[in-house]
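On clarity, I found the account of how folds are encoded harder to follow than it need be. Since the whole study asks how a given chain folds, the encoding of that fold should be made plain. For the editor and my fellow referees, an illustration may be useful. An entry of this sort, consisting of the sequence and the corresponding backbone structure tokens, reads as follows:

:::
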Amino acid sequence: MKIDSICVQGGYTPGNGEPRQIPIIQSTTFKYDTSEEMGKLFDLEASGYFYTRLQNPTNDYVAAKIAQLEGGTAGMLTSSGQAANFYALFNICGCGDHIVSSSTIYGGTFNLISVTMKRMGIDVTFVSPDATEEELNAAFRDNTKAVFGETIANPALTVLDIEKFAKCAHAHGVPLIIDNTFATPVNCRPFEWGADIVTHSTTKYMDGHGAAVGGAIVDSGRFDWMAHADKYPGLCTPDDSYHGITYTEKFGKEGAFITKCTAQLMRDLGSIQSPQNAFLLNLGLESLHVRVQRHCENGLAVAEFLSGHPKVAYVNYCGLPGDKYYPLAQKYLPKGSCGVVSFGLKDGREAAGNFMRKLKIAAIETHVADARTCCLNPASSTHRQMNDEQLREAGVPAELIRISCGIEDKEDLIADIAQALES
């Protein structure tokens, strides 16, 4: 099926007389007739369900749809996008290891990697998304275990050269992990450009209605963990907590990563998405291909208006022909990028605050990629833990405004922005 049809039909095929919509299995536990049957599940000798913290049928149907959308071999849902990024990295990184990451990533993820994971003994080197191959290669160490980046950075809106980052990652025997939240698989499928693992904050475009927080991880099934077994003992040597199972031997490179992530991290840390949220997420996925097109149409219209306004200092939107990332967008995002536009006002941070207070349709929210238009000054909210130098490195100067264009009428959005600028 093409991607539009997968959005509607993927992940779940009801049998004769079964519910047409994905059922909500709102149960913590599952009954078995014998201890032996349940024991096989605990030993990973059989597939099935025994406790929703590890797996739930509703969640698995939706994860299967997202994996199908991305062109991957296995997927899992998490309680949030932040949990998805943490699990994807921590599944292969531990104390004494090192990560290479793009510097222009979401502020919460920057803090996760640079502060929280550093406290766990995992070091990081941040590199510019525009780094040359030589600069990228110089960032690697013997203990580097992963490279991380975002297809379209939030909120800097830089576009990552996925092929270049994948080439360098693979040259050093490590996977490339891409957060594909803003682009969604409708506009970009990173596996087709060499990425190995994809994450999502499903709270954003995938849900699309601000109804359910969630995240997802998808494995391409292509990275050969056994070829680099010394780097990834957690996947390539026996796991004593599961009677000596070696994930790569039992589940192959197509299933080892997600199985370990579920069996170990979800078991021990428990960042599960509720079945009710998974059900709501699936409702959003069914219209994803339609909504993303409208978001992109509105984003481009707003970006074009802002770029010609005398009070606007600059506009970041890779769909604009003059944008720095326009060539990369044409390569990786030919159908459109997203509905998020960032821009700066000539009068700085104070003017940004005044502008946002005058908006009538767009609401000030710590959210993005919603059916409703919303905006934010990241320096005073999502990125406020960064100093001015870090803000500049992350592509988020103090005066920057991020506006997420919803699916309202674009003329109404432009009129609202125009009156706020004049006020």
User: Anything to note?
Assistant: The longest strand covers residues 144-150.
